[in-house]
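Per-record layout

source: Croceibacterium soli
name: Flagellar basal-body rod protein FlgC
length: 134
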Amino acid sequence: MPGPMTIFELGQRAMSAQLVRMNAAASNLANAGSIAASEGEAYRPLRPVFAEQLDAATGLSSVRVAGVQRADVAPVRRHDPGHPLADENGDVWASPVDENAEMVEMLEASRQYQNMVEALSTAKQLMLETMRMK
């Protein structure tokens, strides 16, 4: 049976979750404006799904990544008969990525990650100071 969760394990889980958020946003930004020949082939944004995980030994609650899903948002149909991927009606399908929202998501995840780095650094310093006092 595993021991109780430490502050460092809790921080590692939180930082991992923020990395998943940043990677999903980066993938979405990389595919913003991409064009496909059909609605089914069009890129749809990735969204991480998180779940709460309770540590019975300490009562601490942490986050875990339950998965990454495609957003349920329709691609944008655009009439562009000159495009090489245009269908018989002259339409192409653009990814429905909102670049501003993805940038906000990436910045927020980055800030949360940095906050955890600072919290863990402070915890480490406090532990070292406590050890020096003994």
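summary: Strands lie at 35-36, 46-54, 61-70, 76-79, 91-94. The helical segments are 7-30, 99-133.
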